[in-house]
């Protein structure tokens, strides 16, 4: 007899978590009975008379609720738990099939689909001069099938004539079909959709005819695991259901799964890079990759694992998510540290005095002080010198005057001659001498020291077999040299996730030149799980046609970047004064709260601390609980709207986001821009970072985004603002 298996869908989990506690307990009891004896009378397992699929059953949970499931031999596919009549209605139109392209199992809710198309079409003229064409008239059935749309869906899909009708049917479609149809609706051609949407879901080897009907084999395919999870017994199922529902822990997109979990005999033969726009699940992939490496059963890991990212706040968040994913056991198997702590752990001797750590603002001030004390004004200003020190000297680990004279200055816009180099080196020596004297050190300087120590050789117990990096776009060259030296070359050594469209610090690198060879091991995620299509479109416009690098000397773009979530358009609104903007903010936040969004799911974001203070003041004076989210501190828990600068928003997400003060005087922030005449390249890079900051802030929004300004709008907004 084959082993009894429970396969639950994401819809089952969602339905379970919406039930009240007493019904949940009954669902668990039902599962235990099903495990012990699927033929038990108390289950009242029935095949609806009008069922389209002979495998469909409903079963009794209590007098009001029934579970909907499919039985295929000893395998039970748990679909949902619904009120009695709704359960029967769903069960009658439900079928299950194996997708011909992906080999993944799909549930097809034909009654829901047909009813939704019928309702949306009622009243619309289908013939005559006013008849509306079908949304997909220009796409052949053959193309739809080739793209992975099951042919039984096609007649109903041909009835769709409006966007509302399409959005209405989305909830009844398998995930791939939904993604394909929305991409077609967005104007993408079948070929592009094949490449970006469907092909990545294909299994590694093409399906044979026999495999197309083999459900047992289909159960293990990544495309199935996007929607289904297999449990071997009711206890395991119960344990999983009792945890809070977070889809990302269980239901990965096939691309995400393939990246995170490698077959045993196919390790990555070197560093891997994962890119993708905001919200595409890079962090989720990084966490699952760590889980795969830490799982002794899988045999992928060879030793210590480090998970690192840019800030302490993000590292704390990663640690929390790692616990969500694999409990304390997983969290204890991994070192989670932000990159500065990694550097500190290598560079600082435990008994040495702890130096003062200086950020860029303080370092810039010290450059200014040094220059003011010079007898004669030199050719170089403080911003240039800070850049030269960090982007050339620390980035390359230059230690001597000769090294500096021989160094290439890639990415620096101002040409300098030998006399200039001599002048600059003398200033840098004096600058570093003063830092040492004051027992102070810059963060990148510390990283450069740590890299030097690690490159000279570390004890094996200080090294890591595997390093997983999140928010990689903001790491400095010295960080990369350090990480390279911390993880000796080998299978699965480095796994790097990042998105250069979100680079908000001026750290550009070419990984290859730093000993991190990602050739042939580069992957891009493109399905956004966070943000609606409307918000993505507005955020995408902020980037204009700016060029972005791919961390390795090439170019990156957001081709194929998309979302299947739908919602309201982003709002872009200008006001005559700050006062008017703040008063509108107070009303907007009140509106969001009235619509059921909790205060802690709302963020107010500004470019400067002063504007944050003004917003905080306006909100608090109106009686709205609000707090500032500051560096290094986890946001206070409670019913507060979070107010923060754009820099703080990195890696976070909220249901509603108001980005305020996006005026021409404030974004880009004049103080953050190098003078174009002094260094045109640097000026362009500073502008790009300012644009990315706004992009990062806007892409934190899941459902609602408002971008506002007073006076004239920021030049980054101009064509959107005009089009509104
Ligand atoms: N397979 C999935 N199923 C459901 N939700 C997912 C999935 N993958 C990611 N998410 C959710 O999408 C959101 C964005 O994911 P994540 O933070 O990993 O994206 P990211 O690419 O790292 O984003 P960013 O670059 O903007 O920081 C999170 O809420 C995450 O839980």
From TrEMBL:
It catalyses: Couples ATP hydrolysis with the unwinding of duplex DNA by translocating in the 3'-5' direction; ATP + H2O = ADP + phosphate + H(+). InterPro entries: DNA_helicase_UvrD-like_C, DNA_helicase_UvrD/REP, P-loop_NTPase, RelE/ParE_toxin_dom_sf, UvrD-like_ATP-bd. This is DNA 3'-5' helicase. GO terms for molecular function: endonuclease activity; helicase activity. Its EC number is 5.6.2.4. The lineage of its organism: Bacteria, Bacillati, Actinomycetota, Actinomycetes, Pseudonocardiales. Residues 255-532 form the UvrD-like helicase ATP-binding domain. It comes from the Bacteria. Pfam families: UvrD-helicase, UvrD_C. Keywords: ATP-binding, Endonuclease, Helicase, Hydrolase, Isomerase, Nuclease, Nucleotide-binding. ATP binds at residues 276-283. It is an enzyme of class 5 (isomerase). Gene3D superfamilies: P-loop containing nucleotide triphosphate hydrolases. It comes from Kutzneria viridogrisea.
């Amino acid at each position: 007899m084959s082993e009894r298996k429970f396969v639950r869908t994401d819809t089952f989990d969602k339905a379970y978590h919406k039930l009240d506690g007493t019904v949940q307990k009954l669902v668990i009891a039902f599962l235990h009975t099903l495990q012990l004896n699927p033929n038990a009378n108390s289950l009242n397992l029935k095949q609806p008379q009008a069922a389209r699929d002979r495998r469909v059953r409903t079963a009794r949970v209590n007098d009001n609720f029934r579970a909907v499931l499919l039985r295929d031999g000893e395998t039970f596919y748990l679909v949902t738990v619904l009120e009695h009549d709704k359960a029967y209605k769903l069960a009658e139109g439900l079928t299950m099939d194996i997708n011909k392209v992906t080999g993944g199992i799909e549930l097809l809710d034909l009654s829901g689909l047909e009813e939704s198309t019928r309702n949306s079409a009622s009243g619309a003229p289908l013939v005559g001069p006013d008849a509306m064409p079908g949304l997909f008239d220009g796409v052949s059935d053959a193309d739809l099938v080739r793209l992975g749309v099951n042919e039984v869906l096609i007649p109903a899909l041909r009835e769709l004539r409006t966007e509302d009708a399409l959005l209405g049917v989305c909830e009844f479609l398998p995930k791939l079909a939904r993604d394909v149809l929305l991409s077609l609706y967005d104007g993408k051609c079948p070929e592009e959709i094949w490449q970006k949407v469907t092909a990545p879901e294909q299994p590694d080897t093409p399906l044979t005819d026999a495999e197309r009907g083999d459900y047992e084999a289909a159960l293990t395919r990544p495309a199935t695991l996007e929607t289904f999870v297999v449990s071997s017994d009711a206890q395991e199922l119960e344990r999983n259901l009792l945890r809070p529902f977070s889809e990302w822990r269980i239901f990965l997109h096939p691309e995400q799964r393939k990246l995170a979990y490698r077959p045993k005999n196919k390790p990555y033969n070197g560093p891997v890079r994962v890119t993708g726009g905001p919200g595409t699940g890079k962090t989720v992939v990084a966490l699952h990759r760590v889980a795969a490496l830490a799982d002794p059963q899988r045999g992928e890991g060879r030793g210590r694992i480090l998970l690192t990212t840019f800030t302490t706040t993000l590292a704390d968040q990663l640690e929390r998510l790692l616990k969500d994913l694999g409990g304390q056991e997983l969290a204890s198997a991994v070192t989670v540290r932000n990159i500065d702590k990694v550097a500190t752990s290598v560079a600082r001797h435990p008994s040495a005095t702890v130096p003062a750590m200086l950020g860029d603002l303080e370092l810039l001030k010290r450059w200014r002080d040094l220059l003011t004390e010079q007898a004669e004004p030199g050719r170089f200003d403080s911003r240039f010198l800070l850049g030269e020190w960090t982007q050339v000297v620390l980035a390359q680990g230059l230690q001597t005057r000769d090294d500096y004279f021989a160094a290439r200055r890639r990415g620096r816009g101002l040409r300098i001659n030998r006399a200039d180099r001599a002048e600059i080196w003398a200033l840098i020596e004096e600058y570093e001498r003063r830092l040492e004297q004051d027992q102070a050190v810059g963060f990148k300087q510390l990283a450069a020291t740590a890299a030097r120590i690690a490159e000279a050789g570390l004890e094996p117990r200080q090294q890591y077999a595997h390093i997983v990096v999140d928010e990689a776009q903001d790491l400095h060259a010295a960080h990369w040299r350090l990480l390279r030296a911390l993880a000796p070359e080998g299978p699965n050594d480095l796994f790097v996730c990042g998105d250069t469209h979100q680079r908000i610090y001026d750290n550009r690198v070419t990984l290859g030149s730093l000993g991190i060879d990602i050739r042939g091991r580069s992957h891009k995620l493109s399905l956004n799980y966070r943000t609606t299509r409307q918000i993505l479109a507005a955020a995408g416009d902020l980037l204009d046609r700016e060029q972005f690098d791919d961390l390795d000397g090439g170019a990156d773009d957001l081709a194929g970047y998309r979302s299947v979530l739908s919602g309201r358009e982003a709002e872009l609104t200008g006001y005559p004064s700050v006062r008017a903007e703040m008063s509108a903010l107070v009303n907007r936040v009140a509106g969001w709260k009235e619509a059921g969004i909790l205060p802690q799911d709302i963020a107010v974001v500004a470019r400067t601390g002063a504007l944050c203070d003004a917003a905080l003041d306006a909100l608090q004076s109106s009686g709205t609980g609000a707090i500032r989210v500051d560096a290094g501190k986890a946001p206070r828990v409670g019913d507060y709207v979070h107010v923060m600068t754009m820099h703080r928003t990195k890696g976070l997400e909220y249901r509603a986001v108001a980005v305020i003060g996006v005026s021409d005087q404030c974004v880009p922030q004049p103080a953050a821009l190098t003078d174009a005449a002094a260094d045109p390249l640097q000026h362009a890079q500073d502008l790009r970072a300012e644009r990315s900051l706004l992009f990062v802030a806007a892409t934190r929004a899941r459902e609602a985004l408002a971008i506002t300004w007073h006076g004239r709008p920021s030049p980054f907004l101009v064509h959107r603002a005009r089009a509104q």
